Write a sequence for this structure.
């Protein structure tokens, strides 16, 4: 996505991770250098992207903000995961899903967390080798292996859940009504995108 690519380029150039700094950098690199920076500068940029590239209204800005919030979440939880012996969010997601299911196939754990198959297989291998997961042959299908949490994996997951209480509130400054409205909207979006993702995945599998 053009906006995210420019954000990455901005950070690589040593830019400060702030919307104001990003907007200034965009304006300095555009033909509109004389435009003064104000609260509407970044909005003007997103409006231009919408017009020039044919995005749906607000799609460019919404995508950028969701991507940016995910970056914040990664920063907030990075130390917690590292202290628990995990490398990233995906490893935590796999452990959480396996805990929820009690045991499941590798493929299910990977697909449910929207992880690339090859990457997911490597993640599970690491979690098994480090003692967080154990695997066994599926008696109903000898070609598959079922994975489940080891005692170490369960304790690690419990410690992480307890640690979340000390992580910065992602929804800081939102009141109860705003939080409920936001969660409702995100659930609707997740439902739509999950359905589309599953349909595409099913189509790819049938073509193989």
């Amino acid at each position: 996505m053009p906006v995210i690519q420019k954000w990455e380029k901005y950070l690589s150039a040593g830019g400060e991770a702030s919307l104001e700094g990003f907007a200034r950098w965009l304006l300095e690199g555009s033909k509109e250098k004389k435009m003064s920076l104000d609260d509407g500068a970044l909005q003007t940029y997103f409006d231009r992207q919408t017009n020039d590239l044919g995005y749906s209204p607000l799609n460019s800005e919404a995508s950028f903000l969701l991507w940016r919030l995910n970056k914040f979440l990664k920063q907030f939880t990075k130390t917690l995961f590292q202290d628990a012996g995990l490398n990233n969010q995906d490893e935590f997601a796999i452990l959480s899903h396996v805990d929820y299911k009690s045991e499941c196939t590798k493929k299910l754990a990977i697909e449910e967390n929207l992880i690339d198959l090859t990457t997911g297989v490597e993640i599970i291998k690491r979690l098994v080798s480090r003692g967080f997961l154990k695997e066994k042959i599926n008696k109903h299908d000898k070609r598959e292996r079922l994975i489940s949490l080891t005692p170490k994996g369960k304790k690690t997951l419990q410690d992480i859940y307890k640690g979340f209480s000390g992580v910065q509130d992602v929804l800081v400054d939102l009141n109860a009504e705003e939080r409920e409205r936001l969660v409702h909207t995100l659930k609707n979006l997740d439902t739509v995108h999950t359905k589309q993702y599953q349909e595409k995945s099913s189509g790819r599998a049938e073509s193989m």
User: Anything to note?
Assistant: The first helix runs from residue 2 to 12. The beta strands are 104-105, 133-138, 141-149.
